[in-house]
Design a protein that fits this description.
mainly beta
């Protein structure tokens, strides 16, 4: 297996905002807030964002976004915004306040809970937006349905192919379990009886892996893992190891066959080092990889 570079796109102001990522959506590549042609990487549109910073879903040519905020122990979405994926135009906005009823009103008084909440998108599919407050909005107009609300689909993809740290993923008869961090990172495959089929350790790959779902993905029976030749963070002052800064390192990709454990290595940055390398998205025969938060590269996956 191999990865073949198709195009690259540099964006000094940054590819994403907050918890966002760059995603593949049909013929377009969507970041915050810009769109590229998937085949060529050409810039189609870009715009500023007022009141939204997170993509909740894309449906029928409409981007559903929200403002994702985090304050200490809480992270929550505020508001519902719809943009045209064709040109980035804001189509409509919904700022309905969240109302707590009964005993749940206590949340309005707790100091560690988000205040002045606005309704937010929960699922986006089939031309509809299901919201936190139980409403169902038309994706094109933002109008709430008056009739009986359809049940939301059980499984709506969000960030595709997630494999969470200390979680697990079932692939046929195998269960994949990642764990550890840095040079102690590992992924193991267990069969139905709990027996280890194979294990991949970062020290065997001579590198460091960040324990984050943007560092490793599952796709078409293969695992794609970003490995750096040094730790992601290093101490600012060796005498104060608790205070760290990002570390610029070179990266490569390890591709693992989920059934056999066979591995392939692809160098991602032979020419320079960067602070951070992420798998932004992977679909069909293309994978998007960002470096330093400002450089996006699209690779064609060469299967073997």
């Amino acid at each position: 297996m191999d990865l073949r570079l198709r195009w690259s796109h540099s964006r000094p102001e940054g590819l994403t905002v907050g918890y966002g990522h760059v995603g593949l959506h049909g013929s377009k590549v969507l970041g915050q807030w810009f769109a590229l042609d998937k085949e060529t990487g050409a810039l189609l549109w870009e715009r500023g964002a007022v009141g939204f910073n997170h993509v909740s879903g894309v449906c029928d040519g409409v981007i559903i976004a929200s403002e994702l905020r985090s304050g200490g122990p809480w992270t929550a979405s505020f508001g519902i915004f719809a943009l045209s994926i064709a040109n980035g135009e804001l189509l409509w906005a919904d700022r309905t306040a969240v109302r707590h009823e009964g005993w749940m009103k206590i949340f309005d008084w707790l100091p560690f809970v988000a205040k002045n909440r606005l309704d937010s998108p929960q699922k986006v599919a089939d031309g509809l937006v299901w919201t936190e407050m139980g409403r169902c909005l038309d994706v094109h107009s933002g109008k709430a349905l008056d009739a009986a609300l359809p049940d939301p689909p059980e499984d709506v993809p969000s960030l595709a192919h997630q494999l969470y740290f200390d979680g697990e993923l079932a692939l046929g008869e195998l269960t994949l379990k990642p764990g550890g961090y840095g040079d102690g990172f590992h992924i193991e495959a267990l069969d139905g009886g709990g027996q280890r089929r194979w294990a991949s350790l970062a020290e065997q790959e001579q590198g460091f892996v960040r324990s984050h779902y943007l560092s490793y993905r599952s796709h078409k029976g293969k695992l794609f893992v970003v490995v750096g030749d040094g730790p992601e963070h290093v101490p600012i002052d060796p005498q104060e190891p608790s205070f760290v800064k990002q570390n610029a390192v070179n990266h490569h990709m390890i591709i693992i066959d989920a059934v056999t454990g066979q591995r392939w290595r692809v160098d991602l940055s032979p020419e320079d080092a960067a602070e951070g390398c992420r798998i932004e998205d992977i679909q069909d025969d293309m994978v998007l990889i960002s470096r330093g938060g400002t450089l996006l590269k699209a690779y064609d996956i060469v299967w073997s």
